[in-house]
């Protein structure tokens, strides 16, 4: 367990009226030449506890209640934006860094801003690099958080866990320069560019004559360049070949060219922001049809021809990668097609395959780990929220019943935002369930997906419910951390991520 609480040092705690209530997170104890710092909590909240011999220097960077006595100054510093910035300044390892250049990276979406300490405990042991601060614009909108608060929450909990291994911050599924600039301004170190608004997927289903007519309307110079590049000869991969037919090339040009041009502009923006400061991931997974090998190759090659530097690419895989549940589909066919995607990435040698909606895809994990040789990026999102709800189902059944009832009311609106195929009509009414039966709702597909996609109703639309949930998870912090560690260790072990060498 990562949650190790010890008594606060007496010479510091005794300076505060309620100092006897203070407990400190053992892994957070840190010292510099002039400052002693730790994360602490009392019966109401968590905070930074600081001590120094002078009310100056690093100690003065932090805001909060200051007291002095016995030759020291002590400060109870709230978890504010200013104090998060000060923490990153004094302890540089609490600030996010680029991590996609590492062999194995793992996105840990955290809708609550409470899960990082438990995530960090696992990445102390396993040889992978985490992205602790990861949120999409959709998630920010539904939870009423900001990229600033997402990074600040991760900063405090990285410090609490004493995790010095480096972590990333992902502006996830961004589609516009407005949102890209908003994320860059606060210091994200990874940007996931969602190209779905620039794609033209309708051409994938058009008949030959319509495709040819649209293609022939394009400038002749563009058509000649594409045909020279892609029809001249097959592309030899490790165990297969990419062969473009004229019709499939036409489809690729029509579907992806606008998106490639937009990606080039984003790439230029990142260079002007500072080359190497931000990893770029390209997402083409938000479509209804799986990404064909020819399409993956075309996208990667066109990005290369436009000098777009990107670290990972997320295709749309065969089968269903729905939220919060295992893979749906033919695993044998998934293995075959996933292997082709890996070979295409290996052909270019400059990026890795990224797996989106990776939460709980337990049957697919061994395939992903094996075929990539551990060289991948995988994103999880709502599964940390589900573990919070499950912890509440054990620790506070009354509150869980409120969440479950509210989820049903919020379901119609949530289904407009998420692709889900579960049959929710099979779920029982909460009044028919005993308290002991409540956690079982998190074990079945409809229950998981109901609670997964309706989080906005709890966290963003209902302040009273928001506060109840945060209070419950504060009181039952140990139970929540245990849920998270066990759940994520299952992900990591099935992916074949090795333990760090001693």
What structural category characterises the helix and strand content? alpha/beta
Number of strands: 17
Proportion of residues in helical segments: 40-55%
Taking all Cα atoms into account, the compactness measure Rg is 25 Å
Detailed description of the structure:
With 502 residues, the chain is of the alpha/beta class. Among the domains are: 5-90, no CATH class; 384-490, no CATH class. It has helices at 10-13, 81-90, 116-123, 137-143, 147-161, 177-185, 208-216, 220-230, 246-274, 293-305, 331-348, 365-372, 383-395, 397-414, 445-453, 455-459, 463-475, 477-494; strands spanning 5-7, 23-25, 30-31, 36-41, 46-52, 65-69, 72-77, 104-108, 129-136, 168-174, 190-194, 235-236, 241-242, 279-283, 312-314, 352-355, 376-380. The strands form 3 sheets. It has an 8-stranded parallel β-barrel, surrounded by 7 helices. A hairpin with a 2-residue loop joins strand 6 and strand 7 (72-77). The longest helix is centred in the middle third of the chain and has 29 residues, at 246-274. 47% of the residues are buried. The model has no long low-confidence stretch (mean pLDDT 97).
